[in-house]
Amino acid sequence: MNNQKMVLEARKLVKRYGHVTALDGADLELHQGEILAVIGDNGAGKSSLIKALSGALVPDSGEILLDGVPISFRSPMDARNAGIETVYQNLAVSPSLNIADNLYLGREKRRPGILGSVFRMLDRKAMHDEAKQKLGELGLLTIQNINQAVETLSGGQRQGVAVARSAAFARHVVIMDEPTAALGVKESRRVLNLIRDVRDKGLSVILISHNMPHVFEVADRIHIHRLGQRIAVIKPDTHTMSEAVAIMTGAMAPDEHQAGAFAA
Questions:
Q1: Domain tally for the chain?
Q2: Which of 148, 165, 180 marks a domain boundary?
Q3: Residues 91 and 219 in one domain
Q4: Chain mean pLDDT for the chain
């Protein structure tokens, strides 16, 4: 992993809300084509870290680097424009719109020529065809009618639409916040496979999850966050789930070599 390109890096991020410190010199490294799981107890600061990386929060200090270049996000749109897409726990889909419209929500394609530039007409055929192609690339063509409303889909299918939207437009990183939290066993399996498919496309994935079996199944490395800081980075093949939970809760001290080699 040392030889892999560093795609996204956070250095010494600090975020305070009055007397409460959400991020206390937080660090993170994400390599090209890896799945990095971020785990931590409630209140550990992992949500604030992810919000900073996705543009939803502006840190008080510290820096974020994308492909080695310092970058500043003032809004989620800035992160999206930089090629970082986020799949939120509440999915952020519009139930009444169809699948194709949801994939292009906020990024609608206009028809060529005067119809698009002057009359602002949408190119629905192009969006329909491209949405079908992108769903096919992720193995989601089990959805029979791409024009059906998202509210008619199952939970797993809705999550698939949200993942497909992010994978379609991300150029660097896809951040997934608790993607299997509200899903059953079968639908969770489908989403885990989607996460691997996104990684196999060459994108890097940050996975935030409380589900340890899922984390250990798909993650290449596991970032453990506690008290606003990264305290360890472990690998599923070197630590057990019990050890990860113990480090996360403070019951077990991280190994010394882990404390000094987070990016390994």
A1: 2
A2: 148
A3: yes
A4: 88
pLDDT tens per residue, range 124-156: 999 888 888 877 777 665 555 778 888 988 777
Are 214 and 90 in a shared domain? yes
Same-domain status, 237 and 107:
no
Are 80 and 63 part of one and the same domain? yes
Whether residue 1 is contained in a domain is answered as no
Residue 183 confidence class, pLDDT cut points 50, 70, 90 = confident
* Mean of pLDDT values over 191-216: 92
- Full DSSP string of the chain: -TTSPEEEEEEEEEEEETTEEEEEEEEEEEETT-EEEEEE-TTSSHHHHHHHHTTSS--SEEEEEETTEEE--SSHHHHHHTTEEEE-TTTT--TTSBHHHHHTTTSPPBPSTHHHHTS--B-HHHHHHHHHHHHHHTT-TTSS-TTSBGGGS-HHHHHHHHHHHHHHH-SSEEEEESTTTT--HHHHHHHHHHHHHHHHTT-EEEEE-S-HHHHHHH-SEEEEEETTEEEEEE-TTTS-HHHHHHHHHTSSPPPHHHHT-TT-
Residue 26, in any domain of the structure: yes
Q: CA torsion sign, 260 to 226 to 212 to 179?
A: negative
What band does 262 get if pLDDT is binned at 50, 70 and 90? Answer: low
The domain spanning residue 209 has which CATH number?
3.40.50.300
pLDDT the model gives residue 87: 87
The parent domain of residue 198 ranges over 6-96+149-259
| More confidently predicted of 238 and 90 | 238
